[in-house]
């Protein structure tokens, strides 16, 4: 088969650009659903709709959806390797409608039931482990960083939630944001089933799920990427779910203003994710990752000093947003470049779980520390220290693991056609 034949085969089966676009929209819609509770956490505490809530109660409420969205990626990623994204995208989208309707009609006046609904709402977060292997298979190695980065920009669905949930809840009724999201998910599930096609030549694994998970977990790049993503994407998720509560408590902002500023953080991170993938295609993922973690070290350290929000504070948080977004894109550019395509789904599931769990822990720590010290400084200093250790890991062990494969790909791409 000549080098042009795989591209021609992909074109006959479907447009890679169309597949990327539909997958990215699905990721955004599901992440919109995944983040529905986050903007409402501070509002529930303020209006007493769920009773008297402490800072730790709010932190737990907004963090719980991350659990299933994280751990579920392990299984969903492996299932995507087996049955393909064309099947998994509509299934995950349709199943997510159930907890959304449960919250809308059953759980909005009960903290305990809202925790239950939020737990299963995390199913929406597993779509990441569906989309990465699906998109990865449609593009050649030299374009996978950008393609996976563009798909990752679908995490901007959290910005949709931040900008609309509180306004819809206050203006049109408490059920409105949930009913609208459920309707959008239903439409997307139908469109995904009708339009999406798995890439030509996709081979389904024949080994058992447990054996594949065990095999993927033993790959050096898997645990290393887990650490990288736990800090990069975990940091993004932590800020996206907890930043409204943090800004309201520490800077006295209204819930709507805090949600709008969180949306700005999300937008910057979303824009930088495909840029991080593109830069990884151009310069390699290691330099992009190193630069991102260095910015987080500095930004978190500055934020820990409680600077004026309108000046240094805004620069620090937006700088971290850019760094975390580019680092998230670069992590999966690294995975796409050094992992066997048939194992990308399984590896993505494990790494995606680590990223989600990385986002689950910080809000709980921040809420716990604030409840005992009336300060967020300790939590932010811990983020700075964690980013510093991850920077060291990137420049040493990760570089050593990835270098042979990346060097071989560079030599291949430089050979005359």
Q: Would you give an account of this structure?
A:
By secondary structure, this protein is an all-alpha fold. 82% of the residues lie in helices and 0% in strands. Helix 5 packs antiparallel against helix 7. The longest helix has 38 residues. The radius of gyration is 21 Å and the shape is globular. The two termini are 14 Å apart. The N terminus is likely disordered.
Supply the number of helical segments: 17
Label the overall shape.
globular
Q: How many whole angstroms does the radius of gyration measure?
A: 21 Å
Low-confidence stretches: 1-12
Order of helices and strands: HHHHHHHHHHHHHHHHH
The first-to-last residue Cα distance is: 14 Å
Mean of residue pLDDT values: 84
Specify the oligomeric state: single chain
Largest sheet: none
Strand residues, percent: under 5%
How many strand segments? 0
Q: What is the topological layout?
A:
Elements: H1 4-13, H2 16-34, H3 40-47, H4 55-83, H5 85-107, H6 111-121, H7 127-138, H8 144-152, H9 157-172, H10 176-195, H11 209-217, H12 220-251, H13 255-283, H14 285-303, H15 309-338, H16 344-373, H17 377-414
Helix pairs in contact: 2-5, 2-7, 2-8, 2-9, 2-10, 3-4, 4-5, 4-6, 4-7, 4-12, 4-16, 5-6, 5-7, 5-10, 7-8, 7-16, 8-13, 8-15, 9-13, 12-13, 12-15, 12-16, 12-17, 13-14, 13-15, 14-15, 14-17, 16-17
């Amino acid at each position: 088969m000549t080098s042009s034949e795989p591209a021609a085969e992909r074109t006959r089966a479907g447009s890679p650009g169309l597949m990327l676009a539909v997958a990215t929209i699905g990721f955004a819609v599901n992440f919109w659903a995944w983040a529905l509770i986050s903007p409402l956490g501070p509002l529930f505490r303020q209006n007493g709709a769920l009773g008297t809530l402490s800072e730790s109660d709010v932190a737990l409420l907004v963090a719980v959806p991350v659990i299933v969205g994280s751990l579920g990626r392990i299984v969903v990623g492996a299932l995507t390797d087996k049955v393909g994204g064309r099947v998994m995208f509509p299934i995950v989208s349709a199943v997510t409608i159930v907890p959304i309707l449960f919250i809308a009609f059953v759980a909005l006046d009960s903290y305990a039931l809202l925790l239950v609904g939020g737990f299963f709402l995390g199913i929406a977060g597993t779509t990441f482990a569906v989309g990465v292997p699906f998109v990865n298979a449609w593009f050649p190695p030299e374009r996978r960083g950008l393609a996976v980065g563009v798909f990752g920009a679908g995490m901007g669905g959290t910005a949709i939630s931040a900008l609309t949930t509180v306004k819809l809840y206050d203006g049109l009724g408490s059920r409105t944001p949930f009913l609208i999201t459920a309707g959008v998910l239903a439409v997307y599930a139908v469109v995904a089933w009708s339009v999406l096609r798995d890439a030509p030549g996709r081979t389904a694994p024949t080994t058992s799920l447990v054996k594949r998970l065990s095999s993927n977990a033993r790959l050096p790049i898997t645990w290393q990427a887990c650490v990288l993503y736990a800090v990069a994407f975990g940091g993004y998720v932590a800020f996206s779910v907890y930043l409204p509560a943090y800004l309201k408590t520490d800077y006295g902002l209204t819930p709507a203003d805090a949600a709008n500023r969180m949306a700005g953080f999300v937008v910057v991170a979303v824009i930088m994710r495909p840029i991080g993938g593109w830069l990884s295609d151009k310069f390699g993922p290691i330099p992009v990752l190193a630069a991102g973690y260095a910015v987080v070290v500095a930004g978190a350290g500055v934020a820990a000093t409680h600077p004026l929000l309108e000046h240094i504070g805004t620069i620090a948080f937006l700088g971290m947003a850019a760094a975390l977004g580019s680092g998230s894109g670069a992590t999966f550019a690294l995975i796409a470049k050094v992992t066997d395509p048939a194992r990308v789904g399984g590896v993505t599931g494990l790494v995606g779980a680590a990223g989600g769990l990385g986002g689950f822990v910080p809000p709980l720590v921040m809420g716990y520390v604030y409840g005992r010290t009336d300060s967020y400084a300790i939590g932010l200093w811990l983020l700075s220290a964690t980013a510093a250790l991850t920077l060291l890991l990137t420049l040493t062990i990760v570089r050593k693991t990835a270098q042979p494969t990346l060097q071989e790909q560079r030599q291949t791409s430089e050979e005359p056609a």
